[in-house]
Amino acid sequence: MKTLHTILTLVLFACGGGGSPSDSDEFLSDALSMPREPTVALDGFASAEQCGLCHEAHYREWSTSGHAYAMSDPVFRAFVAVRQEHYGGKQDMFCLQCHSPIGTRGGEIVPGFDFAELQPITLEGVTCESCHKVASLARPYNSGHVLEPGGPMRGTIAEPAVSAAHESSVRADVKRLLAGAARVDIATVATSVRAGDVVDLLVTVENNISGHNFPTGSTFNRQAWIEVVVRDGDDRIVFATGTLDASGEPRGSSRAGPGEGEILRLGSILVDARGEPVLFPWRATEHVSNALGPLGERVFRLRVPTTRAARGPLSAEARVLFRAFSPTALRALGLDEYVTRLEIHEVSRDRTSVELRPP
Ligand code: HEC
Ligand code: HEC
Ligand code: HEC
Q1: 92-99 and 2-15 helices cross at what angle (nearest 10)?
Q2: pTM (two decimals)
Q3: Ligand 3 pocket list (CB less than 6 A)
Q4: Where's the Cytochrome c-552/4 domain (predicted)?
């Protein structure tokens, strides 16, 4: 599933969705992905459930994936609602061209559309046939694939068995991506320091994925950061960065060089013309990314002061953490009830220790 997913993901940035609301009465359209008149018939597509009758495992995997929730995700709906308001419905097909290509091309997504009135196939979001009925790619961004409902089911099986349900055909250009994620390493410059001196820590984070950034996709929604906690010989925290503050946001450290006060962020933010962070992509003028490129590596240097009375050894632990949304974003969307359900995933962890010599 990775390849098509990545194509869709890459394009998110190509499109940006930036700019400011236009005064024109025209609604945003595109002959291929946001047509003014339907180019496919909704009833030309089968539901995932029907595919699941034979492809049980694929159905199970799909139904818990982000693709299945592309249209029902409350955060997505909240973003769309705000955008409908900002643009008076004139750009309603923009987000939907990817989140429900079938519904958008099938004529269901019209200016001012209402989620409550959509057909089940549209609400299936990125369903089986929005990928397996792709005949070709017209452009590598913004839902640039050509959907052919009447065509064969395209997949990777070189000589698919004959099936009563559908014709099958191989897509030779589907490349497999390597699975993997980021890895963190924490090391000390010196294995022992005098109490009262500064301990230099090197935190290296590495993207093991060859195909895309870490994190990837809508990184301005995502949060990926490094947490570093240093404890003394009495297990007291003497230094921390990336731990959560009262609002649930990762704290910066006042002593995290090179950029003093910088938190070790790996995601990205959107900013407006004045450089202020903004939540809504279409209000942003710039995307400032800290993501790690494919197979990229970054080294952060942390300077941890100690006191003359400190007892060693110091133990330092670094973790790469990831979560789907920031609590601030959910609150701004009026989705406070989801804040406590946000899960933080540990991507990688490493630790090291430093001896303290008498001053
Ligand atoms: C986001 C696009 C996407 C969606 C949605 C999707 N698939 Fe796939 N599917 C793929 C890709 C890409 C492959 C090729 C496998 C690979 O490269 O790992 C694939 C492979 C397959 C195969 C071939 C056997 C195999 O595992 O390689 C079958 C069968 C299949 N999918 C069925 C389904 C069914 C049924 C659904 C819905 C329940 C579905 N797919 C949803 C993209 C998708
Ligand atoms: C009646 C059973 C049945 C149903 C229903 C069914 N399929 Fe299949 N499908 C098959 C068989 C059999 C194959 C060949 C598998 C093989 O060769 O290992 C296949 C192959 C595929 C392939 C691989 C094609 C290739 O050339 O690599 C894809 C993709 C696929 N099906 C998707 C779907 C989707 C999407 C649906 C729902 C719209 C669906 N199938 C419904 C039986 C079914
Ligand atoms: C070019 C295709 C494309 C367009 C256009 C697009 N998205 Fe997405 N969207 C994606 C993909 C792919 C993902 C999954 C990427 C990921 O997991 O980071 C995604 C994920 C999301 C998520 C995260 C869903 C979750 O629960 O994790 C939200 C929210 C979202 N999009 C909102 C929007 C909004 C709002 C718009 C319109 C302003 C939009 N998208 C336009 C492709 C697109």
Answers
A1: 160
A2: 0.76
A3: 8-9, 11-12, 15, 17, 66, 73, 75-76, 79-80, 83, 94-95, 97-99, 142-143, 217-218, 221, 281, 324
A4: 50-132
